[in-house]
Specification:
heterodimer, A: alpha+beta, 6-stranded mixed beta sheet, 5-stranded mixed beta sheet, 16 helices, 11 strands, 18% strand, globular, B: alpha+beta, 41% helix
């Protein structure tokens, strides 16, 4: 098949380093008069010390609580009042702060980011820390404990990676560690990781690059580099847990849920691209193997597969929610059949063409907003040193062969390399023990 | 260490905003009444098409809740030409996604595809719309899937609270008291033949509009639409409008027990206004300052001051008839009563004392400034056109939108707050641990407190 049906223009960009080490990437696109700023720091939950889980993310919240010239809440006020949007996110490997707004707001956005990179410590105080600690604990309750099947990611990473491995714990952290986080911890975290030479700043959209560069130098230029950025932790481990890990959990769920996960190839490798295509064969769209064989055949009301790509080692997971009347054992067996089919039942030309066409559309869609272009440029510069990878991604995926899929599937989808987490409805008698009202 | 405040400069002033308008669009009616609208978005290679049919859950007969949803889900399961799973294979081979959905007011068949394959993809979309297979086997499966999905909704705090809330503010026989996707019993009891009947009655060319956006340079859309839909026959259907009645006489608390819940999921509100309400713009800004943005009063109070929640929002839900006004949040179990009290107080003081000019200026800046961000992609532009269709808004609606936002005065905002917020007629719904929160709620005396308990896991929902 023709690999790329739609010829769409490359993303053009400039890439330089300021004297203080800040990497600046600019990409002009003038379709709509808006501009996105993405400031990506190379620090995430993998950098947290034992007993300090959740600190990277709690810290992210503190970046909205004021700095040298800004009071608590000012970030939102300044960005909103000009019609912009802003937020931040933390993963195992990064913390990115982003805002996008009408073009005339660019200078303000750069100033906002510089003010907290250079002047956060001046505003840090116990009151805002206690407030954001409460907010984050509610975030954990809302996204994890109080959701049906909501603890599955934590259970999965806990079972795939041994205690002490940087990917063992989740980004949100434990309640105990959140409670224990002190102002001293937050300050130390800032001093270790937040510096221009540990960050990538991407600007994408409708703006004048010469003017933008002057602003970047003006606002970020005086912030000193940190010569002692801690080294990136080693995360590489073999595709072998030393035997299948299993856990069964009784929870407030209406139907069994089965979550089967594997260690998988590191982000940035050809094998990770193979997993992306394999994942599309398995679960992108109604024509995928999982939808056709699990949902249409009425084993599951929902079944999906995805890969959480990370440097060193990724993890891939299939999850299914049982259809009415289906036992978890049956669902697990059928899910394993579909996953293992990638080893034994070669992907057909038709399946591969469908999967690649879907991935191509997803990539075109992803690069159609300035905000996600900025995020991808930052990501590729930060994790792989090369923002130009944004332009190679599609042709890489389009070149994956069925032989590569069955080879990688055989390496990854083994019993020794998998964790199976099962959620079962709570039996009635447990509920009867509740204290009376 | 040097004083950090010297590291960064003081706040700059913004330049002037650039002009940008909602893309020009065309409207064409074919001889059979089928309407085509298109908006050219240069440089956008991913195209969106939406076929909007003026029929939704509002047109379902009383005992057939879910029939519109099942018709939507079954529409893409197979066609006369492509039976069974072969239809989706043909669609997805093009890099396209086609799916149908329905709300109360409309039924939408949506297509996303790279523009160089828009024509064959539209051909498949037309095939689904004009000749759906609606096989009994698919409909039976989709019914079971929906029933399983409803049980999930009952176990998930956000959706459980929404269900209890809509059943609290609307009378039992109201259309909006039920899900636009059907409730458990109505889906279970639905005869599968009703799906085709419903669809054939309401899906007709004069009730349908095809909206397309993307880089349409040189794309003969009307000609293609003529070829694909010109032969479609059918008259404007007769529609019932559905009945809705406000059930809230005075404030009350409904507690849905969730054993050992770590948080209480809260919905507070009452019946709001229809989309056609003439105070749309004052209400938009009023709600923005109240709880529609992250720097709103509710967010400042409940999140930034108290730390009760990860987030809180308020909104007037836009439907043809009066949709809900509601405040939504999830709070730590032990602060449930206090959080509800603070939220009510924010509503009460907004209603009684209104807002400040500074608050209005920020939300005005937001809704005017965000306009170009809002319509960055063809998908969003198509949605913008879809809004005109669904709510029968004039063609200059988007062209005059920012002016209409700018023109709103503080008096108008405060009048809207006093007129449309009803702090003494609130349904207060909490999904949480009744053992932990009931006493506090009784003591706070927000209104009478009722507790309901859901059946055991795996049993069909009843409330």
């Amino acid at each position: 098949m023709s690999a790329i049906a739609t010829a769409y223009p490359k993303i053009e960009f400039t890439d330089e380093k300021l004297k203080n080490g800040l990497r600046l990437i600019m990409s002009v696109e003038r379709l709509v008069p808006i501009v996105a700023v993405n400031l990506w720091y190379s620090v995430g939950s993998r950098n947290e010390a034992p007993g300090k889980t959740g600190l990277a993310h709690l810290f992210e919240h503190m970046m909205f609580e004021g700095s040298a010239h800004l009071k608590k809440g000012d970030h939102f006020k300044h960005v909103q009042s000009m019609g912009g949007q802003n937020n931040a996110s933390t993963s195992a490997v990064r913390t990115n702060y982003f805002e996008w707004a009408p073009s005339h707001g660019l200078e303000t956005m750069l100033w906002l980011e510089a003010d907290r990179m250079g002047g956060l410590l001046e505003a840090l105080n116990q009151e805002t820390l206690d407030n954001q600690r409460d907010v984050v604990k509610n975030e954990r309750r809302q996204t994890s404990e109080n959701q049906p099947y909501g603890t599955w990611i934590e259970e999965t990473t806990n079972n795939l990676f041994a205690e002490g491995h940087p990917y063992h714990h989740t980004v949100i952290g434990s309640m105990d560690d959140l409670d224990a986080a002190s102002l001293k911890d937050v300050k130390a975290f800032f001093s270790s990781h937040y510096a221009p030479n540990n960050a990538v700043l991407s600007i994408v959209g409708d703006f004048d690059p010469k003017q933008a560069r002057e602003w970047v130098v003006k606002y970020f230029g005086k912030i000193p580099a940190n010569k002692k950025i801690p080294p990136t932790p080693d995360t590489e481990v073999p595709f072998d847990l030393g035997g299948e890990a299993r856990k069964s959990i009784r929870d407030r769920v209406p139907a069994p849920g089965v979550f089967i996960s594997y260690r998988s190839p590191a982000d940035g490798t050809r094998e990770n691209d193979v997993m992306t295509v394999a994942g599309a064969v398995l679960s992108v769209g109604f024509g995928s193997r999982m939808y056709q064989r699990l949902v249409r055949e009425q084993y599951a009301i929902q079944a999906q597969f995805f890969t959480n790509a990370q440097p060193g080692v990724s993890w891939s997971a299939a999850f299914g929610v049982a259809a009415p009347g289906i036992f978890n054992e049956v669902l697990e067996t059928e899910m394993l059949k579909v996953i293992d089919s990638l080893k034994t039942e070669p992907v057909t030309d038709e399946e591969l063409a469908r999967a690649k066409a879907q991935l191509e559309s997803q990539i075109i869609a992803r690069f159609s907003t300035v905000a996600s272009r900025a995020d991808s440029l930052s990501e590729n510069a930060s994790l792989f040193g090369d923002p130009g990878r944004v332009n190679d991604q599609l042709s890489e995926l389009m070149s994956i062969t069925p032989e590569e899929i069955s080879k990688v599937a055989s390496e990854v989808f083994t019993k020794e390399n998998r964790a199976v987490i099962t959620y079962l409805p709570k039996p009635a008698e447990v509920k009867d023990k509740r204290k009376g009202r | 260490m040097m004083a950090t405040s010297t590291l960064v400069a003081k706040r700059p002033t913004n330049g002037a905003p650039k002009d940008w308008d909602f893309p020009g669009f065309t409207r064409t009616r074919l001889d059979n009444g089928f309407q085509v609208m298109s908006a050219h978005a240069p440089g956008r290679y991913m195209g969106t098409a939406k076929l909007i049919i003026e029929a939704g859950a509002s047109n379902e007969e009383g005992d057939q809740g879910g029939v519109a949803y099942l018709a939507a889900r079954a529409l893409t399961e197979g066609t006369g030409r492509h039976k069974g799973g072969t239809f989706v294979q043909a669609v997805e081979r093009l890099g396209a996604v086609i799916f149908a959905s329905c709300g109360y007011d409309s039924f939408t068949v949506e297509l996303h595809v790279p523009l160089d394959r828009m024509e064959p993809a539209l051909d498949l979309l037309a095939e689904a719309v004009l000749d759906p297979e609606f096989s009994g086997k698919d409909i039976d499966r989709l019914k079971l899937e929906r029933m399983g999905g409803i049980m999930q909704e009952y176990s998930q705090p956000t959706s459980r609270a929404e269900i209890a809330f809509r059943k609290s503010i609307y009378s039992e026989d109201s259309l909006y008291a039920r899900s636009p996707m059907g409730d458990y019993a109505s889906v279970m009891n639905l005869a599968k033949g009703k799906v085709r009947k419903y669809y054939e009655r309401f899906a007709t060319p004069p009730a349908s509009t095809l909206v397309v956006s993307g880089d349409l340079d040189g794309f003969p859309l009307v000609k293609i639409a003529e070829k694909l839909f010109g032969r479609w026959k059918g008259k404007e259907p007769e529609r019932s409008t559905g009945h809705n009645a406000d059930a809230v006489k005075r404030s009350f608390v409904l507690l849905v027990h969730r054993e050992e819940a770590e948080q209480s999921q809260i919905e507070i509100g009452h019946v709001g206004v229809p989309r056609s309400n003439p105070d749309f713009f004052p209400l938009l800004l009023m709600n923005g300052a109240l709880g529609g943005t992250i720097d709103s009063r509710l967010s400042r109070k409940l999140r930034e001051e108290k730390g009760f929640t990860y987030g809180v929002r308020s909104g007037f839900v836009q439907r043809r008839q009066a949709g809900p006004f509601h405040v939504t949040t999830a709070v730590d179990t032990k602060v449930t009563t206090e959080a509800i009290g603070e939220a009510i107080e924010v509503i009460r003081s907004a209603s009684a004392d209104g807002f400040t000019q500074a608050e209005l200026d920020i939300v005005k800046g937001f809704y005017v400034g965000i306009f170009p961000l809002q319509f960055e992609t063809p998908d969003a532009i198509a949605d913008g056109l879809g809004t005109l269709v669904t709510h029968r808004l004039p063609d200059d609606y988007w062209a005059t939108y920012r002016h209409n936002v700018e023109s709103v005065t503080l008096d108008q905002v405060n009048e809207a707050a006093s007129k449309y917020l009803r702090p003494d007629h609130l349904a207060i719904v909490a999904v949480g641990d009744a053992d932990e929160v009931k006493d506090g709620l009784l003591e706070a005396n927000f209104g009478p407190v009722a507790v309901i308990e859901d059946p055991e896991a795996g049993q069909p929902p009843i409330h």
